[in-house]
Amino acid sequence: MNYTFFTVGPSQLFPTVSKHMKNAIKDNIPSISHRGEQFKNIYKETQDSLRKLMDIPKNWHIFFISSGLEAMERIIQNSVAKSSLHFINGAFSKKFCDFSKKLKKHPYKIETDENKQFDYNSVKIPKDVELICITQNETSTGTIFPMDEIYKIKDKNPDKLIAIDIVSSAPYVKINWLKIDAAFFSVQKGFGLPAGLCVLLVNEKIIDKSKELDYKGYNIGTFHSFISLLDKETNYQNPETPNILFIYLLGQVCRDFLKIGIEKIRKDTEKKAELIYDFFKKHKIYEPYVKNADIRSMTTITIDVRGRSKEIIRRLAEKGIIAGSGYGTNKDRHIRIANFPAHRLTDVKKLLKYLR
Ligand SMILES: *Cc1c(COP(=O)(O)O)cnc(C)c1O
Predict the structure, then answer these.
(1) Rounded CA separation 265/286 (Å)
(2) What is the reported pTM?
């Protein structure tokens, strides 16, 4: 059967991926040397397309690593001597914090209920915090941290570094790169690719911090320390043999996104999200889990289905639609619906038709 995946990651492949995969095999991309000119061109082209698509400044570095979780670990290792601070409202933000602790740092926590917003105005950042970690789109609950609130935190704390997890909101989320210092996303969500590649974006300030930590004798890691990544990036390479095929595929999909236009992708995302939220706002039994519309995710939508998730997922599967269950302890209580560029309006309409 031909399935459409509305799961939040891995998810539906972007429709052009299979064509690009065939071309990659035809052109021997999986066999080329990771030190040769052909690979360097691929690396550079993917960087260039990403920069255009997400409006990333020239002086930002674009590193390729293996996963979103790896990005969390690398960022903490390379920018924190002692203290990080974490806004926690779900499983992924909690993981970021746990990693800081496991790396023997001292994480501060600011917590809120899963589907509520933080009390932004009363937030106090302790003096010794070096890095503030924010999960911009908390996939476990479908809640966003509004970018404007992140910018206000930066304005009030210009001396602190800010890292944002945009794993499940890129490339939809619009970013003012002057107001953050690091961001990361893996490609199996909004980019509609197979899992196994993550893009880590960092500015000069956080690179300098990493060099300072290294100089002072802190452990900043080995082959994926920012110093090592930077050293190779200068020559359009990775320290290790990277996932050459996926770096190529990411570049191709970025080009496809550029052809469609990022503003159209954003508008379409909002239109599809509105359809889904409207449907559930009017539903007699089910309702959006996040009540406050200001912090509802446009890209990963969580619906409280009163414990009926298993049955709904089973019945949708019979129709060729794969929906996501709730996260962790909410497995049976919620369904989660991804709304990425790979999901067409007609797919969303079909999903809602069967849910009716
Ligand atoms: C999926 C996800 C991650 C983890 O990414 P991996 O590539 O699986 O390591 C981290 N943060 C958020 C918000 C996610 O949705």
Answers:
(1) 28
(2) 0.98
